[in-house]
């Protein structure tokens, strides 16, 4: 029943006759040619190296967005705070049908946004008596009290167009002092170092500063300006119009079409589709219909046209 | 009878079995032939060796970048040039490999017990694409920041992000310069050995011609 025996019955290549073919010479010529071509492309087109964004550059360029983001981290309303696994249990994560793979794996990189992005950096720095007192007040307050302060400040900041200097006086408790000091630390550059070094002196994990940057608006705006956003085929693009990962076109395609482009489970669904397509790609030799396409679209006649001249 | 059995019994244990298997499946004339079947006469065959040589340029330029460390290419014109060589060799690798793959598809190159050759080629493509992704993640520039913060959502959605953290520069560096290259090297080596063992796939028998099994 299996088609394997028929597939295995292809004629032996040696039965077609042979001709001299210098594999080593071909390899050396190809190596020299490709090396020269690469060296020329590199010399002519170079490569992009857009300077990275830092928390300091963000805070200096857009102190309002920084303050609003820091407040969202403090009151637990930021994207990271509500992300779910692997960072916290605030959500279940995305699902493929009934399967919540992220939830199954669980929290492996726990992030308490208030502590990680606001309170720890303030606690680790040398502070003035005012800031120390504000920290003490905030830390000793109840959750309800903290929520009342942050809610009131969030409303006031919205009304002030995210400009802390324009916020009218109100019942915000120690929150304005804390956020103002965090902004000062960010502008000085010390917050970049603190966020990177929370795990110790040696570090190579930039999860915290990257999550903090991604919660703000400026990183997303910079990405969109460079045509790198998901709905701009950003997966396949590169800064400054350099060629990007164009081999990801199939993945990027699904992010452009419904339901993947608006589903809350869009990422998981795209991965599921790509997993199926990858399996199909790997198993082409065994899939009836698909493996017959080469016979139906006879590109092979071009490839072996010399052969068919003598073997019609 | 017993003496006959003793004389013909394979010797050398696992080592002997491995040697005999290699001699049987990959004799030197098959491993490095100086002739090819007469039907190997098309430009499409060049893309296999172009893919392999582009991979060697990728590895070579990657080794140069590794010797001086990840910061070098941001502060040195020579380092930046080698980064450019690395980038363009990757672009060429993926272009050559894609043409090679498309060509092999339309040649139905899995015929004649060559399915594993196709599969190892497909795995090579996926492994190279994944290795390239980790390369983008360790650039230490805006590109790396953007790609890592975007890619994390896809990986987290299927639970992979819990263990493969694209925002962990150290982890991605080790995957890019050590673990993935080992995978690519092994799969490509297996692919090449399978090509040499089975030989180049013969032409598809035209409809109605002798040997047509469609």
UniProtKB/TrEMBL annotation, chain A:
Domain of life of the organism encoding this protein: Bacteria
Transmembrane segments: 27-45, 268-287
Keyword Membrane assigned: yes
UniProt entry keywords in alphabetical sequence: Membrane, Transmembrane, Transmembrane helix
The protein's name: Uncharacterized protein
Phylogenetic classification of the source organism: Bacteria, Bacillati, Actinomycetota, Actinomycetes, Catenulisporales
From TrEMBL, chain B:
Protein name (database record): Cytochrome bc1 complex cytochrome b subunit
Gene3D superfamilies according to UniProt: Cytochrome Bc1 Complex, Chain C
Organism the protein comes from: Actinocrinis puniceicyclus
Domain Cytochrome b/b6 N-terminal region profile intervals: 18-204
Catalytic reaction list: a quinol + 2 Fe(III)-[cytochrome c](out) = a quinone + 2 Fe(II)-[cytochrome c](out) + 2 H(+)(out)
GO biological process: respiratory electron transport chain
Cofactor(s) this protein requires: heme
E.C. number(s) listed in UniProt: 7.1.1.8
Top-tier EC class: translocase
Domain of life: Bacteria
GO function terms (MF aspect): oxidoreductase activity; quinol-cytochrome-c reductase activity
Gene Ontology CC terms: membrane
InterPro entries linked: Cyt_b/b6_N (IPR005797), Cytb/b6-like_sf (IPR027387), Di-haem_cyt_TM (IPR016174)
Transmembrane segments: 40-65, 85-103, 115-138, 173-194
Pfam family, one: Cytochrom_B_N_2
Keywords: Membrane, Transmembrane, Transmembrane helix
